[in-house]
Amino acid sequence: MNNDDAIFRQLGTEREVLTVSQLNARARRLLEEVFPAVWVEGELSNLARPSSGHLYFTLKDSGAQVRCALFRQNAARVRMDLRDGLLVRARGRVSLYEGRGDYQMILDAVEPAGDGALRQAFEALKARLQAEGLFAAERKRPLPSHPTRIGVITSPSGAAVRDIISVFGRRAPFIELVISPTAVQGREAAPQIVQALERADRGGFDALILARGGGSLEDLWPFNEEMVARAVAACRTPVISAVGHETDVSISDFVADVRAPTPSAAAELLSPDTRAMLQQLQRSHRQLQQCMKVRLERERLRLDALRRRLRHPGERLAQQSQRLDELELRLRRVWQQRMDLRRQQLASLHGRLQQQHPERLLRLLEERLEQMRQRLPRAMQLRLAQHRQQLESAAQSLHLISPLATLGRGYSILLDSQGHAVRRPQDTQPGQRLQARLAEGSLNLRVEAEEPHTLPLLD
């Protein structure tokens, strides 16, 4: 049996009535004896830094949380920047704060263990919605310049709604504000915010303000829920997200048409300053008066000029009558010139037509045909004589260079069996048969010797 078992066996063995203080003191000693030192990993939240230098915060996971105290001497040894949403590993003893009966841990060391589950969920949802295009600039709708009816989705008892009402009351009291009450913290907040958004989107408002005051990451978490982000994206009415303080950022800020750093800033974005509007109206009134004065003076000068130009209608009729006479004379001159030009053109065309008359052309062609009929026999006789003379000259030249003419003078040509001419005695052999071509006929010969001598005629 170990010490822990012995301690638990002693509980309830004696009938003893304890005071609350005694109960808490014994419970504290029991916890500190059972858990003298333990490491715990969790997400840091609700961090408080009082002037004493001690640090108080909560470590939590998805199912539970525990309060922690890190006293000044131990907090000075921590080399990391503690902040809400940070995943840490903490070492300390389990104890009990007797004054309130709160279960807590007294820590002596804290070291980082990651970014925290809530922060990781925040970044994962942000990346997924951004990939879907819910943060795209082209989806953002402009805010109305002069709204008359605005819906506010927030807690009816929070500081945010009071700030918004104060700003509108000061800057634009004529704008109608309609509060759509909803929880802004806790497990039931997200579904209520979605219902309030859907209800307000059907209310015919010029714009909607989704607002909440500052708080920890856990407090603001309903505005990081996916259902709230998609409800904001589905609104047909322009939405301003004003969640937390200036340094707080939520998923609804990215999805909304406009992000305001605070609820008061959202009210200022939608409430035109009546004093500024009055000053602008006064400036516009003075500018209008000045413009009207300048315009009236300009029109007066123009009227005077027209009055000076205005004359008696009879004068104008006389001038027009004279102008009409001048135009009539000009028309007659132009008409006469045009008629004379047309007559000249007609006479020229008539002369050209006579020159191109078919009967005249036919006579010219007959005369030319008769001339050609007379020239044709003479040209044929002359051409035949020229060709006959050329033929005789060519025949004579051909006869002069013909081998037959040489043979006619007593020469002959020796041919071998292939019909080649024999030019030297060395080209023959004894006994070789040759053919002698004469002017008339030929002789078959046989070579007896290479020495030149008289060859006998073959039989």
From TrEMBL:
Q: What is its EC number?
A: 3.1.11.6
Q: Which UniProt keywords apply?
A: Cytoplasm, Exonuclease, Hydrolase, Nuclease
State any GO CC term. cytoplasm
GO biological process terms on file: DNA catabolic process
Domain of life of the source: Bacteria
Where can this protein be found? Cytoplasm
**GO molecular function per UniProt:** exodeoxyribonuclease VII activity; nucleic acid binding
Residue limits of the OB-fold nucleic acid binding domain? 18-110
Which intervals hold domain Exonuclease VII large subunit C-terminal? 134-445
Q: Which reaction does it catalyse?
A: Exonucleolytic cleavage in either 5'- to 3'- or 3'- to 5'-direction to yield nucleoside 5'-phosphates
Q: Which family does it belong to?
A: Belongs to the XseA family.
Q: Which PANTHER family does the entry mention? A: EXODEOXYRIBONUCLEASE 7 LARGE SUBUNIT (PTHR30008:SF0)
Record's subunit section: Heterooligomer composed of large and small subunits.
Its function?
Bidirectionally degrades single-stranded DNA into large acid-insoluble oligonucleotides, which are then degraded further into small acid-soluble oligonucleotides.
The protein's matches in NCBIfam families, at most eight in alphabetical order, are given as: xseA
This chain belongs to which protein, by name? Answer: Exodeoxyribonuclease 7 large subunit
Gene (UniProt): xseA
